[in-house]
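Researcher: Let's try something more involved. This one mixes different molecule types, so please make sure each is placed in the same coordinate frame as the others.
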Amino acid sequence: MHNITDNMTAENRMISLFKDNFDLLRGAEPQGITQLRQQAIALVEKYGFPTPTTENWRFTDLESLFYTPYHFDFSNQSRPFDIDKIFTCDVYDLDTFSVTLLNGWFVYKNAPLTTLKNGTVIGSLSKAMEVYPELVQKYLGKAALMEEQGLTALNTAFFQDGLFVYVPENVKVEKPIQIINIVNSEQPVMLHARHLILQEKGSELTLVHCDHSLTHNISFTNSVTEGFVAKDAKLDFYKIQNKGHNAAVVNSGFFQQKAHSELVCHALTLNGGFTKNIFNAELQEPNCRATLNGLYLVDSNQHVDNQLQVDHAAPHCESEQLYKGILDDEATAVFSGKIMVRRDAQKTMAYQNNKNILLTDEAKANAQPQLEIYADDVKCSHGATVGQLDPNAMFYLRSRGLSERSARQLLMYAFANEVVQRIAIEPLRDRIDHLVEKRLKGELSICDQCVLHCNSKEPTVFNIDVSKL
Amino acid sequence: MLSIQNLMVSINGKTILKDFNLEVKAGEVHAIMGPNGTGKSTLASVIAGRDLYDVDAGSISYLGQDLLEMEPEVRAREGIFLGFQYPVEIPGVSMANFLRTAINEKRKYHGLEPLSGAEFLKLMEDRKKLVDIHSKLTNRSVNEGFSGGEKKKNEIFQMAMLEPRLAILDETDSGLDIDALKVVANGVNKLRSPENATIVITHYQRLLDYIVPDFVHVLFDGRIVKSGGKELALELEEKGYEWVRKEAGIQEVH
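Model: All components are placed in one shared frame. Result:
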């Protein structure tokens, strides 16, 4: 364990920490990865972390997150480990291949890498670097935009483990793969998990990524996922966040798509003190499709920031962004969605929509749609709304005998449902539907999935208070 | 059942209803007619409890209670139903979920057990037939993408489900073709009973060929200027509203 407590800038503290722990960080990894780390820390030194003057960070203040003297766990002492003892996922009908990360480290019962009958490899990235060094070196860092994202560079310098998935050509992985990312620490921790998804031609994969915290202690998770979706391949990616008020998450996903591939990316933020999701889809070849769906339900002084970019680099591609949020109390939300259509990307169809409902005068939503179009034969649109529940609909429902509370819940639920309905896996859709309903009734706790740690404490219930509308 | 006395209503400081009086007894059908902009829809909204309007004077008593003191949902649970002139589209809220919540909240208010899923479905099937509604309609979101005729039929369907004591139908005939009009009228007639009452607000006499009123009132300038039997509607159809205006001594407003 290492502490940083002095008065240097956040960047310099991290650089110094990097230098002091360089041997631990690189371990026995391939040389190419070590070089990548060094490039990354050089970028941290050159560009620093985002500030309120950085584009797409105007409304999200990162600085205060670095005040905390975090602990770092550069050597993994917890493996092997029986995760079932502290956590069970309660999506009962969801038959998944489930893996767990505890404080950023891959947790396994039998082996760190599993090869399924169809050739799919699932397991620890740290182990994959050892077993498949060429493959990992070929892709790792190639989709991540380190120059633009200081925290992605930071992750690249500090990552040690995470999920590795490889799907061979034409293999359709039937069971969704679920990553459960658990933070459980008595001390404030900062984590840099790194995930690598490699899909060969014509393959299909569903990945469900759940973020949970098991304690109410302070944590800062800075995770990066890179996904390479080859020709005709399909990736269905879910990010589900149900974290405590003291949990900060910066979650970045970078996807590269080849011809006729499809990406569906869902970000569902049910709780979280500070959440920033960054998703980038790069449509490199013709006839790709990217759908980015998001739902955020925040209250108290929670802050959620969704930053999207779809980069249309090839013709005949389609993209759609739909992000919706309900904000209570003094919660704040930011949406910045960019559609980039490059010169050669003719016949692009790109749509973006962000809708917010504010339940109080104090809640704030900022929407920043950005369209950058260099091709002339394209169809693009964007829209953003910030408003209250429709008073005409409220009266209509009440005039039929529904209480004000029921009417509000029904309308909020309907508002959120447009996003939930886009979840393709039925048991997961039903489960999310149920969680959203509970959340809107004020009955959802971060302890919902926890079987051990909250027994001694009063469960914290996060409450969107409908009576205040 | 309903007694409105000296009612004065305004919106944003502009008076819409002035010195409005109306008595409705159980078993009666009242038609309120009049040109556009005379306060017909305002009257309907105020009875249902819309808070856009200010009641500046007067009283409304319903089944012996002060109606103006009740929240809209309480009025509904006590048996008041407003058939909207412009039914609201509510994407994402299914008809079934909406109506089941409405019925069960009403039942709870009256100390009754909620309807089970099976009981509710049976009731829906039964009432659908009454208004000749297609089964698909009830699986969709409330009014979303419904045609004008479907929306009005849906209002009557909701009325059939909620079994009100006092139904106010605000321009339910507007925008309907003759077949839809017959379906709507037929639904209303089937639900008539000696215990309940209906107020039909309409611009045209046409609907009253099918829903025969006991009383016809002409609304002008925020008050009833003439009342009569069903034959008054025919007279209005024939001669227009101008003679009523002149008879009442009301200035033409442009």
